[in-house]
Amino acid sequence: AYYIVPLLGSLALLLSTYAIGAMMFSRVVGAGAAVVLLTCTPIFYDSTELLPDLLATALFTVAVALAVAVRRRRLRLGLPVLLGIGALLGWSYLVREFIVFVWPLVPILLWPRLGERALEERGGAAPDRGRRLLDLVWLGLPIVVLAAAETVTFWAVYGDPLARANAVVNHGEGPTPPAIAQTFQDKPRWVYVARPWHVLGGTDSKPFPERWVLRSLLVGAVLGGLVWRRRLGPLLVWMALLWVPLVLLGGVIDPSSPKLRLQLIRYWFPMFPAFVLAGVAAAWLLAGYCAARARSGRSAGGVAARVVRVVAIVPAVAVAGVVGASVV
């Protein structure tokens, strides 16, 4: 029974990642991203342990997959769908509170379709703001209910209805052994900014075998987003929604007292589906672009120019990563 929850979470993450990739790009992208995601060392290890981060990531990714399906009219935005997505978000919060940082992605994806439910029932030319806001209320209702139930539970068990909130606010303020403190305190601010690059490599004693695959996908996601902004934009927003608050709380604001230990890769799990999908999709888009140019009989100059724009910054990023690793 111990392994049922992590295995179900891993399966949900696998299927939802595939669904997002297939709907946004192609089945090849979805399948490739799902395989890379589930077989990489940190995710594979957590899929055998009863830890909260992977399950919270899986629940949120399922919610994103449903939102993408609604946005692309693969799924009708009915009341059950809104309540279901809200329940997934609320459940993910109960599992791991830091998942709330990436929640705004879901209403962003749903926004063009919000209010259409009322139009189908009553008719109309376009959804107005009131109808959109009403759908947002329905989306948030399960979250409020679950949060209220948790508050009552904490009040009954601990005598403090805000027990979780207090734990989150005071996170990282306890005494830390010097050997651990030196791994995340009083570092240059740019080290905290570059934490994703470092953690994807593993540790000095146990580097990940696939570290350069993961790092290449991260770089490809960022650079591909600069070239194909409309196609990869939602995935970059997903990444930014986690990266910005984590690096601010994890040391950029106060390097002497970080609230989070960003050297722990589990904090970055909610970003994994985004950068893996974006990295694989960027390679797929580049391959499709080159094939289309070749079929059209145009000169190779345009293809070469696009390739150069995509990969020109890779050596600089690699050098920065090596220098950063030496500092860390």
Report on this model:
- The protein is mostly helical and 328 residues long.
- The protein is built from 17 helices and no strands.
- It has helices at 4-24, 27-39, 41-46, 52-71, 79-95, 105-110, 116-122, 129-158, 163-169, 178-181, 189-193, 195-199, 211-227, 229-252, 272-296, 300-311, 314-327.
- The chain starts with a helix and ends with a helix.
- Mean pLDDT is 84; it is low at 308-328.
Helicity, as a percent range: over 70%
Q: Strand-and-helix sequence, N→C?
A: HHHHHHHHHHHHHHHHH
According to DSSP, the number of beta strands is 0
- Report mean pLDDT, rounded to a whole number: 84
- How much β-strand is present in the residues? under 5%
Structural class: mainly alpha
Q: Give the overall silhouette.
A: globular
Task: Note the gap between the termini.
Answer: 39 Å
Indicate the low-confidence ranges by residue numbers: 308-328
> What radius of gyration results from the CA coordinates?
21 Å
Number of helices: 17
| Biggest beta sheet attributes | none
Quaternary arrangement of the chains shown? single chain
Set down the secondary structure blueprint.
Elements (H helix, E strand, L loop, with lengths): L3 H21 L2 H13 L1 H6 L5 H20 L7 H17 L9 H6 L5 H7 L6 H30 L4 H7 L8 H4 L7 H5 L1 H5 L11 H17 L1 H24 L19 H25 L3 H12 L2 H14 L1
Helix pairs in contact: 1-2, 1-4, 2-15, 4-5, 5-8, 13-14, 13-15, 14-15, 15-16
List keywords for this structure.
328 residues; mainly alpha; 0% strand
Quick recap:
The chain is mainly α. It contains 17 helices and no strands.
